[in-house]
Amino acid sequence: MAGYTMSENTSNFIERVAIIGAGGNMGRHIVSQLLQTGIHTLTAITRPNSTASIQDGVNIVRIDYTSQDDSALVSALQGHQALVITLSVTAPQDTMFILIRAAAKAKVQFILPNWYGHDPTNDALCKDSLLLDRRNAVCGEVKKLGVSSYLLMASGFWYEWSLSGGPDRYGFDFEKRSLTLFDGGNTPMNTTTWPQSARAVAKLLSLKISAVDGNDGSPTLEQFRNSAVYISSFRVTQRDMFESVKRVTGTTDADWSITDETSEQRWKESMAEIKKGNFSAFTKMLYSRTWFPNGDADHESSHGLHNEVLGLPVENFDEWTTIAVRMAEENAVPWVMH
How far apart are CA 317 and CA 49, in angstroms? Predict the structure, then answer.
């Protein structure tokens, strides 16, 4: 396996994990879940001027990890077996590659790049979502360096974030009580909550690394290297979401203004805006393409899930809809990604 020999790590488990973005939306959940395993030592690598709150029990190293001089970053990564990256969409484009190269210099065995969502094996979906070149560059860089292995989390969009984040995502505007259905609202999609995504990361990094101590049939981290991990909280349509919303808000169809649009037309319109330089259309483009009624967002049907392999729990749909509605009421989610 790339970058790994038992002589370098006498334990067959990941023990030391470094994380970028530990105080962010996704990062804080990953930190919480990794701490709960009781088997990981965590290091949060954060910028010197960051004011993000990081949980107790985490070692904090403050360095400029965007600097082309990566000597401090390499030093901070020394001795770690895994690097988890959760960057903001506004982070400089070359930051990911600085981190990957530093991880290789530090001989980090596994990297979880900033990929939590689309099925990374679906070239058409990734291309139409403007993610294909990024995927190829990131994965290609890891492979070219030949030290680390990457792990990509195919989770679909985050449920509570997307449901509460305005009509460009899952079609809901809770303030106006309006719903835009895409192609009738009957397209199934896999969608995952933040905690479930974080549990998957923690469970994955808690697997034994390889089957060197006998092939007993139990899952190993090695079997996922340089590939996708398919997880989900719910496989639902917009209409399923709407039924859940009505249950938790005590509303009926009559309380909502409902319209219908085609996902393809929405995608074409937003892509045209992006080509004109209007990147505020990115959110609409990204979600509209994923809602195409061709099964692209239903990775459960096309690939199956690793939920059972990772021991992920079954979550309560209405409970998370309730959380999303509250987030919408609190304006917790910006409607536009830049």
Answer: 38
